[in-house]
């Protein structure tokens, strides 16, 4: 039961327990798969040959899951921690019914779907493309056109040929699914499916022959019956694209696109004219519009502003009120958005575990469990030491005096030490009973107390800034304004801002508010049209652009041999030795061969973000200007960067739609999940000297938000409420 991802350089191998009985659940919004194993292996050579084996094949590769259980309940919202999406979305896992409707948002463009490439009109508008993607409108219209041409033709055999051609195309699609199903199964069920496949191949071959059947060989009875069948099929298909129904779908599509930030003018633009970020929004709209059983969203908040994020959060929550809400599986680095989920689906140690609640509650419960187990282990270590001392004393006294009672007592205590020490609670939280909770003839003792490792797996450290030698503001803006061309209104105006060492400045605002323009003035990519911008003479600045990943990808395409290590070595130009350069990349998660051997074009978005951060950090900047730095990062790395910024002595200017990240990095709120730290007196003095401020840009003007991110969130919530009410 293996399946290959033929479009990539890897193969996804999936197996699961399969019953020999044909049991199908009518509820396609639920999954219950046992014995799940997933391995990611290198792709096989494209020689068209398949390797057959009667026994179980051992496959080399990265084992993601081993003997796990995948369980999804209808209508629940699962936050997924770990890689599992592709295997579910493409139904590679045996046990997922072929009839299950699955919609998935991945980090690809709406026009990247190869199944729709031949149907895609290059001039199709955003709205048309979203509706088409969600309803398969093009496919239905193609069948309607073929049948209409046949039914309306003067040739009496035309309706039959049109019908047979449409049915043949459907049979070919079913043949593809059967072929995939046969490759997924083994044993008795696999043999049965392969027999079905062989039989169905004959059906497809016969269907192909019927298309070419001469008219004089078609009997009058067959002609009449199939002509009527063509008319009936045409009527059913026309109902699916009936104007009233399509108008309803289009109205829903417009509402969703509006919530995601599309104006009417942008909806009417050709889909091919959109930038990558707007393409992602269109793909998200198509997923939300589709009638689906399981909805999978991979980082849906990427490229959304705060209005879009909060609208999406409320829209997903409102799905629960539908008569048939889809089951949601979500992957996101945005911790605030993460909290809309009802359950966690955690991939760890090659297994899947489940937790009912939010990520902060899970992390808190795990910390409490670890602390409890540490105390239990300490108490048992103390008790064990006492019992071992008592056993030794009894043995010594028994042998010395030939005291059998002492020896029996020592033996009894040793048995208790061997069999009764260990975990005191069962998996359900009650008192552990050996004959109930650890059943098995080969088991005679309790399990050892297993202390889970610290939950945090990613650490990050920012280099301390270089000495300035003399004081002064790092960057100062005085009544600054900017317009892009003569005669145009000012994009931003009357901006006054001074940034000193240690300051934390957050900038929030909706798309089009002028944030990017302000950043250009701060990093001196543009000069103000009015007012002034001055910088400290010894200032070293680190600027992370929201387009940094695309820039690195273009560098990689220009030089396919370029790696993270070779790029950084070239830019450092001897300022650091190779060991220090590798250490810097390693601290950011690009260690070993990933840094030196993997080309930039093969690195993931998150790895490219780390590479760009390394390009900033080695210079030991005094100020970091970070524009949407959390896009592409996983939540562990986002957490590590948040904590690193919190501790850093330099100044930070942050533009981000990630509320949780902004609260920690800028406002200094680090104890919302039990993360608070006991600061020393020196740390307290630094904190008192540090200025923390969150500014809102609206219409090119900047105002201070007294209550920071929470105040901006309340403002946006009001707008979202109006959008959802319309």
From TrEMBL:
Annotated ABC transporter domain residues: 49-374, 475-724
Keywords of this entry: ATP-binding, Nucleotide-binding, Repeat
Start and end residues of each stretch annotated as Disordered: 384-421
Keyword ATP-binding in annotation: yes
Compositionally skewed regions (Basic and acidic residues) per UniProt: 397-406
GO terms, molecular function: ATP binding; ATP hydrolysis activity
Protein name: ABC transporter F family member-like protein
Pfam families for the chain: ABC_tran, ABC_tran_Xtn
InterPro entries for this protein: AAA+_ATPase, ABC_tran_Xtn, ABC_transporter-like_ATP-bd, ABCF, P-loop_NTPase
Gene3D superfamilies noted in UniProt: P-loop containing nucleotide triphosphate hydrolases (3.40.50.300)
PANTHER family in UniProt: ATP-BINDING TRANSPORT PROTEIN-RELATED (PTHR19211), ATPASE, PUTATIVE (AFU_ORTHOLOGUE AFUA_1G16440)-RELATED (PTHR19211:SF135)
């Amino acid at each position: 039961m293996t399946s290959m991802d033929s479009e990539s350089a890897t193969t996804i191998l999936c197996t699961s327990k399969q019953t020999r009985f044909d049991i199908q659940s009518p509820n396609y919004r639920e999954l219950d798969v046992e014995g799940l194993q997933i391995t990611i292996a290198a792709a096989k050579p494209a020689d068209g040959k398949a390797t057959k084996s009667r026994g179980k094949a051992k496959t080399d590769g990265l084992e993601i899951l081993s003997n796990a259980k995948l369980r999804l309940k209808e209508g629940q919202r699962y936050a997924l921690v770990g890689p599992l999406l592709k295997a579910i979305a493409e139904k590679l896992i045996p046990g997922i019914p072929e009839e299950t409707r699955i919609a998935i948002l991945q980090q690809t463009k709406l026009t990247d779907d190869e199944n729709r490439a031949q149907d895609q009109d290059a001039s199709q508008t955003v709205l048309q493309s979203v509706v088409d993607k969600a309803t398969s409108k093009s496919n239905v219209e193609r069948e309607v056109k073929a049948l209409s041409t046949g039914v309306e033709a003067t040739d009496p055999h035309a309706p039959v040929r049109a019908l047979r051609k449409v049915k043949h195309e459907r049979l070919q699609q079913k043949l593809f699914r059967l072929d995939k199903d046969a490759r997924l199964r083994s044993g008795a069920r696999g043999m049965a499916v392969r027999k079905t496949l062989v039989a169905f191949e004959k059906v497809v071959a016969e269907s192909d022959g019927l298309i070419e059947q001469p008219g004089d060989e078609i009997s009058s009875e067959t002609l009449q019956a199939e002509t009527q069948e063509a008319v009936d099929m045409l009527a059913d298909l026309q109902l699916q694209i009936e104007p009233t129904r399509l108008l309803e779908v289009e109205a829903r599509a417009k509402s969703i696109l509006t919530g995601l930030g599309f104006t009417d003018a942008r909806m009417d633009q050709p889909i091919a004219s959109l930038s990558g970020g707007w393409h992602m929004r269109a793909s998200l709209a198509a997923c939300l519009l589709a009638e689906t059983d399981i909805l999978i969203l991979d980082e849906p908040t990427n490229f959304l502003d705060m209005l879009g994020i909060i609208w999406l959060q409320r829209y997903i929550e409102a799905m629960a009120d539908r008569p048939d809400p889809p089951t949601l599986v979500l992957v996101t680095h945005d911790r605030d958005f993460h909290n809309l989920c009802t359950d966690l689906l955690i991939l760890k140690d090659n297994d899947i575990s489940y937790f009912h609640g939010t990520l902060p509650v899970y992390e808190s419960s795990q910390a409490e469990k670890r602390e409890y187990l540490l105390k239990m282990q300490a108490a048992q270590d103390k008790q064990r030491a006492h019992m071992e001392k008592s056993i030794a004393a009894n043995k010594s006294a028994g042998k010395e005096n030939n005291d059998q009672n002492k020896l029996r007592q020592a033996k009894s205590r040793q048995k208790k030490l061997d069999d009764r020490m260990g975990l005191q609670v069962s998996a359900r939280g009650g008192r552990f009973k050996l004959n109930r909770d650890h059943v098995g003839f080969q088991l005679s003792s309790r399990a050892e107390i297993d202390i889970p490792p610290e939950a945090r797996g990613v650490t990050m450290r920012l280099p301390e800034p270089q000495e300035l030698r003399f004081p002064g503001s790092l960057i100062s803006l005085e009544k600054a304004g900017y317009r892009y061309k003569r005669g145009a209104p000012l994009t931003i105006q009357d901006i006054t801002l001074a940034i000193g060492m240690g300051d934390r400045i957050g900038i929030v605002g909706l798309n089009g508010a002028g944030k990017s323009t302000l950043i250009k003035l701060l990093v001196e990519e543009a000069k103000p049209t009015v007012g002034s911008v001055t910088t400290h003479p010894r200032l070293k600045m680190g600027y992370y652009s929201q387009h940094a990943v695309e820039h690195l990808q273009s560098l990689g395409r220009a030089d396919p041999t370029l790696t993270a290590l070779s790029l950084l070595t070239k830019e450092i130009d001897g300022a650091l030795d190779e060991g220090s350069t590798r250490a810097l990349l390693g601290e950011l998660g690009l260690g070993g061969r990933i840094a030196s051997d993997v080309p930039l074009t093969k690195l993931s978005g998150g790895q490219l973000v780390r590479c760009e951060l390394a390009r900033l950090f080695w210079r030991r900047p005094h100020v970091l200007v970070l524009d949407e730095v959390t896009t592409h990062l996983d939540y562990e790395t986002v957490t590590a960067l948040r904590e690193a910024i919190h501790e850093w002595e330099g100044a930070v200017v942050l533009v981000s739609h990630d509320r949780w990240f902004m609260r920690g990095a800028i406002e200094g709120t680090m104890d919302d999940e039990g993360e608070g730290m006991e600061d020393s007196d020196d740390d307290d003095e630094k904190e008192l000297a540090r200025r923390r401020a969150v500014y809102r840009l609206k219409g090119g003007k900047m105002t201070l938000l007294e209550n920071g991110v929470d105040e901006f969130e309340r403002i946006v919530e009001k707008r979202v409420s109006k959008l959802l009410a319309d």
